[in-house]
Amino acid sequence: MPSASTPVPVPSERLRPAVVWWWWCTEGVVAMVMVGLAFWLLRPWLAEHWSAWSPGLDLALRAALGVWLLANLLAPPLQYVRWRFCYDGDLLVLRHGVLFVAERIVPVRRMQHVDLLRGPVERLFGLATLVVHTAGDDGATFRVPGLAVARAQELRDRILEARGDGRR
Amino acid sequence: MADVDDASRPAPADRVAADSGAPESGTAPAGAQEPRARQGAEPGAAPALAPEPAAAVAAAPVLARGQLHPAILLLQLFTVLRGLFLPVLLGVWVAPWFLAVAGLLLLVQMGAALLRFVTLEYALTADELRVRDGLLHRQERRIPLDRVQDLGFESSLLRRALGLVVVQVETASGKGVEVRLDALGTAAAEHLRAVLLAARDRGAAAPPAAAADARPTDAPAAPQVLQWLVHRTSATALWWRGVTDLRLSAFLVLGFSALELADRLGLRGSVRGVVRGASDWLGRLPPLVLATVLVLALVVVLGFGVVTSTCSSFVQFFGFELWLSGDVLQRRYGLLTTRQKVLPRVRIQRVALEQTWLRWLAGLAVVKADSAGGSRAEGEDQASGFDVVVPLAELQATMALLPALLPGFEREVLVYRSGSPRLVARTALQGVVLASVLAALLVPGLGPAGWFAFTLVPVSGLLGVLVYRKLGYALGDAHVALRQGVFGLFHTFVPTAKIQAVVVRQGPFEQCFGLASLAVHVAGGASTTLPHLLLADARALAAELAQRAAVAAAADW
């Protein structure tokens, strides 16, 4: 049983580097497709149908698309660099985010259930996502992406063990 | 957490056996008595441990069973006939085949009602409530008693005249009402509730794991049920509730729907004509008269608003009483439709004292309680007063009755700390960024007038000052408290033992100033956010709360 005086552990464990490729393959590709559609379809359409269309606006749109694409391509490595988590038997601590930083602390005995998710692209890279559900309504799920499958299973088992599910 | 998720209680059969071995005096099923009478009689009756009332029938597997009350058929006939008014009218005046449709509708709807009446039956055993209904599509729902969160009674005027009451069973699943029995006879409903609460309390007291929840572990098996009136809302308070309930938005909705209706009826052109005529007429008036007319119109609109909201306040909350019996809060209220709601105290996850700006000026507050699986998330609270615990009372009075809602609150010493003054700079910077974006969009189109966007900067700075003035948070022995508001004032109290998770967040602006917000998640309902803390403070507080939650969770398990 933990006592209130023990400090909250500082998260130090990192995700698998392959998670960067996974994020590129999902969010990155989506962003590229959207930018491509906007560049080759939306711009000509606007130029034809919108009377106020001007080269200045065209430049602004191109710049916005470029910035957006760059942000989406840069986000995965930056996210990877900032992601830290740890689990000490009582608390699951996650710290992540670049622009919007969040540090989440979940006492695992409070949670409702644990999921392991493995999408097709994740399987390609040998990754798994651990999802912890608590009983709250909004923001009540906590995700740890980019884990090696074995590590994810081990974490899940340790969490279930600490929760005492197998005890009675 | 024992009250949300525990699939692993000891077998209920053991409990039944143990309980029936206890000394018993009454043999009549005690639930048949009026619960108020039972609870009122007990404190006087018993220095000796009063035996659990329902223990007398605990040996039998079924404690109570029954069907819907036959009078419900009458009520449904009435409802169906009311619905047939239009088809019959059409049948008489327009085309006779509408009468055939009406007859068919009558047959089908009354058939369905009859079928439901014949097939529905409920049975209460020592550990679960079973409700069975349907003929072709038979279904049986079984609800473990320890999951029953709320047993509400509701009775409209017609139902009351027929001696009926709608029983609503709510569980902690978050879905709100799980089973709705429309309707039982009043006596049968009271019986059901008395037996159910007695059985559940015994269940909760028996396994040691659950005993850690709220009651001391050395409590006797048959707790002495004390009942007292915590709060009664006076008519004056209800009147104040109506007066301070300025819902201009309701008028906007009303106006829009009136316009919409006019549009549907093809009256739009004439409405426009009337409006144009009125504005022409107003334009010709001298300014003083115009001002008087406008002020009068405003007074009439506000007066109408006050009258309607006062009426609705009276209809909804007339005779509001909050009782505490043992660990269970009971609310009874309503003028036309009367409601009785039960809220076990251990389920309360958060208590809020809400003062909108008018009520803040008058020193009045509304008290609301969030419970696990409560319906605040479904937006029911305003509509039905679902989790309103006190409709309106003076702030001091609401503060004084907090210990009745949050056990242990009477021992709390809350020393409020204010948020960081940097938040003023933060909101001002937000204003600068917003104003720049707006100016960039407006100046090319509007010319120099677009620069007026920068008036947003002092406005948001002022807003920051207003926020800072009232913002405060405190950590007590077992509760975390938040006080905030811009024009009004809102207090929130969360028992630290109920915390599910804590999240420290920093947006881009907050990172600039080393600020952070702390969101405290509890079961059910939205999270409570403590905004504008220094990052170090937020982290320390989050760590402390997480540790306490972990300790409490370990104790629950």
Secondary structure layout plus pairing:
The complex is a heterodimer of chains A (168) and B (557).
Chain A: H1 18-49, H2 55-82, E1 84-87, E2 91-96, E3 101-107, E4 113-117, H3 120-124, E5 127-133, E6 141-148, H4 149-163
Antiparallel strand pairs in A: 1-2, 2-3, 4-5, 5-6
Chain B: H1 12-20, H2 35-45, E1 62-67, H3 71-83, H4 85-93, H5 97-119, E2 121-125, E3 128-133, E4 139-144, E5 148-155, H6 157-161, E6 164-171, E7 177-185, H7 186-205, H8 208-211, E8 227-232, H9 235-243, H10 248-264, H11 268-284, H12 287-317, E9 321-325, E10 328-333, E11 338-344, E12 348-355, H13 357-362, E13 364-371, H14 381-384, E14 388-394, H15 395-400, H16 402-405, E15 417-418, H17 422-446, H18 456-470, E16 472-475, E17 479-484, E18 489-495, E19 499-506, H19 508-513, E20 515-522, E21 528-534, H20 535-556
Antiparallel strand pairs in B: 1-2, 2-3, 3-4, 5-6, 5-11, 6-7, 8-9, 9-10, 10-11, 12-13, 12-18, 13-14, 15-16, 16-17, 17-18, 19-20, 20-21
Helix pairs in contact in B: 3-5, 4-5, 9-12, 17-18
Structural summary, described in words:
Chain A is an alpha+beta fold and 168 residues long. Chain A folds into 2 domains: 18-80; 84-163, PH-domain like (Roll). Helix content of chain A is 48%, strand content 22%. In chain A, the strands form 2 sheets. Chain A has a 3-stranded antiparallel beta sheet. In chain A, strands 4-5-6 form a 3-stranded antiparallel beta sheet, sandwiched between helices. In chain A, a hairpin with a 7-residue loop joins strand 5 (127-133) and strand 6 (141-148). The mean pLDDT of chain A is 87. Chain B is an alpha+beta fold. Chain B is 46% helix and 25% strand. A 7-stranded antiparallel beta sheet of chain B has the order 7-6-5-11-10-9-8. In chain B, helix 17 runs antiparallel to helix 18. Chain B is globular.
